[in-house]
Every structure is written in C-alpha cells, then in structure tokens.
Here is the input.
Amino acid sequence: MKMRNVSQFISFSILRLIILVVVVPVIFVIFVLFKNGWSAMSWHFIMTPPSGDLTKGGLLLPIVGTLYLVGLTILFALPLGLLSAIYLSEYAKQGKLIRIVRLAIVNLAGVPSIVYGLFGYGVFCLMLNMHESILAGSMTLAILILPVIIVASEEALTAVPQGFREASLALGATKWQTTYKVVLPNALPGIITGAILGISRAAGETAPILFTVVAAYMHDLPKSLFDKCMALPYHLYNISTQVPDAPLNIQWGTALTLLIIAVGLNIAASFIRVHFRKNRAW
Amino acid sequence: MSDMKKKFKFRNIVEYIIEKLIFFSGIATILFVIFILAFITYDAFPIFKTNTLQSMVFGKDWYPVPDDVFGMLPLILGSLLVTAGSIIIGVPVGVAAAIYIGEVAPPKLREILKPTVEVLAAIPSVVIGFIGLLLLAPYLMNHLDKYMVTGQAAITGAIMLAFMSMPTIISISEDALNAVPGEYKAAAYALGATKWQTIIRVIVPAAKSGILAAVMLGIGRSIGETMTVMMVTGNAAVVPENWKAIFMPIRTMTATIAAEMGETARETPHFHALFMIGVLLFTITFIINFIADLALRRVKK
Here is the structure.
C-alpha cells in the first residue's frame, strides 16, 4: 500500500517540476523584456519615425504600418470568416461537404506562414500586379487569420441555445432574419473575441509580409494602399539581425512594444470572453 | 404555402441571395487550400525544366547563386533536425504539463497556469527569435563551448521551437484528457487505484488518439516556423553528418525561402526552386494535419 503512495508522490513531484519548466521561462522572458525594454519606452519613442539608418529614432512608421495592415486584414477576414462560420453552424447539413470544409480549415490553419508569403507574392503581387503593397500584404494576412476567425465565430454561434432559433422561426421569421436578428447579437461577444485574436495574430506575423508588403526603411507614411509600409515585427527582425549598429535599448524597446500589442490584445480577448460568459442571459 | 410565397417574394429573393453568399463563404476555405497548392505549384513547376525531383530532394549542395545548384537535402535535414529536437523536448514536457493542468493541479492554480500557456502562444515568433538570439544563444555558447563554435545552432532553434509548440501540445492533449469519460476514472478508483495509477494506466491510454493529434500538430507547428529558426539557427546549408550536428549551425527550408526570396529575380531557376521548397513544405504539413485530423475524429467517436 505504501509503495503506491510513494510512487504517486514522486510522479506528482516530477509533474510539478515540469510545469515549472514551462511557466518559469515564460515569466522570466516577459520580465526580461520589461526590464530591458522599459527604459526605451516613452511617448517620444512611439511617436517619432526611425532615423539614422535605423540606429536612432522611434517606432512611428512601423507601428502605423502595422495598424494599416491589421485594419485592412480584419476588414477582409471578418466578413468572410463570419459568413463561413454562419454556414457551418446555421446552414450546412451534416455530410461529406461539411467534413471537407472542416478538413480545409484545419489544413489552412496548419499551412506554414512562409507558404502564405509565397502564395501572396506569387498571386497578389506578381499575377494580379498589386506589387508589394499594403493591399497585397493584408489580403495574404487575411487568409492566414481566416481559420482563427471561423473557429471562434462558429463556437460563439453554436453556443446560442437552439430554443432562441425555434422561438424566432415560430414567430414567422425567415432563417436569415433569425440568424441576423437573434443568433448573431447573442454570439457577438464571442465573435469580437475571435476578431481580436485574429488581429493579434496578424500584428505579430512576419513571414507572410516579407515579400508582399514590408519595407525595411521608409521616411514617410504610406500614401495609398498600393504603397509599401514598415511593420513592427519585421522592424524587430531587421534591427536585431541586419543592422549591426542598432542600439540594444531600441531593440529591446521594439520587442517589448510588439509583445505588449500582441499579448495585450490576447488578454483583452480573454477578458471579453470571461466577462460576457458571466453576464449572459442563458 | 404558395400564397405566402407570392406575398413574401422580395423576402425570398433576399433570402436566396444571402443563402448563396453564405454557402460560397462556407466553401471558401476549401478553395483557398486548393488555390494555395495550385499557385505555388504553378510557380514551382518550371524548375523541372532543368532539375529532377530526385536531384533536388537528394542533392547535397545548395548553391543557388551563382551556380544554380538546388540540392535541398541540407535544408530538409536541417528542418527535420530542429523539428525532431523540439519534439523530443516539447512532447514529454507538453504532455506532462497537460496531465498536471488537467488532472492534478488544484482549480485555483489551473486558473493561473492556463492563461500563462495562452500568453506563451501569443508571443510573436519574431520576439521569441529575438530572445533566442540575445539570451539563449550566448548562454548555450558559454556553457557548451566544448561542442559549439557559435550559439546560433540547431539546438538553439530546437529549444525555442519546443516552447513554441508547447501551447499546441498542451491544449490539444488537455482536451483529449478531458474527453475521457468520467466513468473510467470512477471505475479505476472503485478498484482501489491511486490517482496516479488512474491517470497513467487509464486516462492517458484512453486519450492516446488525442495526444497523437497533439504531437502531430506540434510537429506541424515546428516544421513550419520561420522567423525564430531564421534568427537563431545560424543559417548554414550543410548536411548534418551525425548527432553532433545538433550543436552546429543549420538551415531550414522555411528560413531559406524567407532569406532568399527577397533577393531573387522572378522567373529565374532560383525563384522556381524556392517555390518548390514551398510545395514540399505544404505537402509535409498537409499530411501531418491530415493524420492529426483523423486522430481527432477518433477522439470524437
């Protein structure tokens, strides 16, 4: 009898050690990013463009570029992803087609981000003659985050109780009216959560924008959707590997800014999810 | 019914259009998967004018400039080496962490651990690469200087990738453990098994399909990762000769595309060869995801 308890004690102790192996580095890395990056952080750092061949100045152009990119990305991805989720949860009948759609979503989520970059470059930039532009980059990113949006939206839609739909249909509403006026409003918090997760993902991606939009160094803001732009993740890659003279505090500050944006959006998404789950009517 | 139809004709037209729109959005993902494969294959295909698949996959030399020699073996083995390394670290740690979070941890602790894993998943790959470059590479170089000539090596990439694949492995494994019916646990306890015996002999074996899926998706995540490996593995396209290669700089398929496409003129053999690497990557991840999907379907049954 005792032997079994000893072996349980040892096993659980090992598990506790292993969980520390996962958690401690995460906390350590975030701590180090704040410790080394915080000194560079200032209003001035955020609001001035990079200068001196990327060895001076701040992050204005990379931040604005990333804002343009994610804004346009979500504009493409959200309607398409939402309609796709509505198809899966409200309209599709169980069968072979829906099975293939689900397999496609899983596969789309698993395609390496650099392959999206190749696709976007080959199709949007070269074949459709968009060249390297904000438009081409955000269309590439939009396809990349589509699975995130679909999965989150579908989960939100299916969580709406069946009785809501039945009540609406019983009142004579059509399927679309039911979906639009009853199901969608009730699923809205979940859909917003998914959209924020998608934005967070798009803001942090580098590989898909490498050849489709990003510029290493610009002096002005992009003037149209057909311009290149700088972007925060690529800027970090660039100053940490391609610009030998870039001061370390600018590098850490850039890394910290990107971390705050990507992780901050994620935390916001979780917060919305938890908040609305507590307060929902059913 | 037919009266109603006339009365609500406008409503029906709107309904019809919207239904079609929703249908086409629904199948858009299928189209995107097909488009991606079709178009990267289209841009890769001209490489077969000058090279055979065999000469590329088994060719040991990658000298695209200026020789147009496109041996991809060093890149393929480089990708396999870092992926294998990341899986050797990431799978045991990830599965153990899932067991701890799902079965052992007190609920309060679970509420802290789960968001921490989510935060790890949310850190952009370029930030993880940056940390690998500035913290891990110098650290390894200092402590393993007998084996390493530079801190930017396969092992550095493997460790960083292990952490990047852990959130996937943990969350899918934990779902699989949760999906094991409660009766199994109750039956094991009723037979006098301890908590640990129940976990290791009943719950984990019952969840093995889901854990397999978790491992597959973890592999997919590692093999497709680009920025982190490009920043920390040193990017030397050499064929790994033996196990010591884990301490040497290597170069992955993903990093090769990322590093070279920007400087390659379109419609050159080099351009087509890089798209060919993309086709190989797509094929590998497609197979991995397909296996993971089959395994997950078994869980649902």
In short: Strands of chain B lie at 62-63, 69-70.
